[in-house]
Design goal:
Layout: E1 4-5, H1 8-28, E2 34-40, H2 44-60, E3 63-69, H3 75-87, E4 93-96, H4 106-111, H5 124-132, H6 140-151, E5 160-164, H7 171-180, E6 184-188, H8 195-199, E7 204-207, E8 225-228, H9 241-245, E9 250-251, H10 258-278
Parallel strand pairs: 1-9, 2-3, 2-4, 5-6, 5-7, 7-8, 8-9
Helix pairs in contact: 1-10, 5-7, 6-7, 6-10
Length: 281
């Protein structure tokens, strides 16, 4: 397993291939899986992400309902739109693109999403279910990390996983998912003392800090598995890839690592939610 490159594009295609028959089965039963994406404002990066997600849906036969609201939209107006989508039985998943304009209460908007349609894993209720081990739709990037490890048969049980980052939709939920798979988990953050020394203890290292090339090669224990969930300007991850590659037994590239799988997990969760409406097991 020396220097195994964890190719997210292969993993993502595997996920999508497994979804094709499930989507066809739903359509035959009169249900077209539908993901509603809400974009508030005109952030170019957000527009690109929403378009990519919509295109990925349509290629698989999932309906993409794209809602673009002006940047002047108030919190109450956004909540009203979310309520409409919650009540629309033809919509199975709701994704509110982050970030929203600063005058909007983003957390309040996230919490308004029906738990049955929280396919992006952004509600505190969904996070709680994930932490307890029975969440149906964990946040998509943490879910992608677990999917990559599963695809490549990377052992988790009994390993020491070090997660750098504690955001509510990445660092915290991936720590919970790893813990639920019987890893011993250390979650690091900006206040962690002797960060490099802590990272060196990790058999599994998850970089989710949002700083380009932050994780250095000499921080990585020989033979560790490195999963880079960072995506910074210029297609740069949170890991100094070439330097970390020397010590890692397996590593995700950026781009082409965690990113493609994140989108495929969003599709999977939307199909899962559509099946739930028909109680398909």
């Amino acid at each position: 397993m020396e220097n195994l490159i964890l190719d997210g594009r292969v993993v993502a295609q595997n996920v999508k291939d497994r979804l094709k028959d499930r989507v066809a089965n739903l359509v035959n039963k009169g249900v077209t899986p539908c993901l509603a994406t809400i974009l508030v404002g005109d952030d170019p990066s957000s527009e690109t992400y929403v378009r990519m997600k919509g295109n990925a849906c349509e290629k698989l036969g999932i309906k993409s309902l794209r809602i673009h609201l002006p940047k002047e939209t108030t919190t109450e107006e956004l909540l009203t739109k979310i309520k409409e989508l919650n009540e629309d039985e033809t919509v199975h998943g709701i994704l509110l693109q982050h970030p929203v304009p600063s005058h909007i209460n983003e957390r309040k908007a996230f919490e308004a999403i029906d738990i049955r349609k929280d396919v992006d894993g952004v509600t505190s209720f969904g996070y709680g279910q994930t932490a307890f081990g029975f969440g149906k739709y964990p946040s998509c990037t943490p879910a992608a990390i677990m999917e990559i490890m599963d695809y490549y048969n990377i052992p988790i049980e009994g390993k020491h996983a070090v997660v750098i980052g504690r955001s509510p939709i990445l660092g915290k939920p991936v720590s919970a998912l790893l813990l639920n798979k019987n890893a011993t988990v250390t979650t690091c953050h900006s206040k962690t003392s002797n960060l490099a020394e802590v990272v060196k203890l990790g058999d599994i290292v998850v970089a989710a800090v949002g700083k380009p090339n932050f994780i250095q090669g000499d921080w990585i224990k020989k033979g560790a598995v490195v999963l880079d969930a960072g995506y910074n300007k210029g297609n740069i991850g949170d890991v100094d890839y070439e330097a970390c590659l020397e010590n890692a037994s397996a590593i995700t590239p950026v781009p082409g690592g965690v990113g493609p799988v994140t989108i495929s997990m969003l599709l999977k969760h939307t199909v899962d939610a559509a099946e739930e409406t028909l109680n398909i097991k």
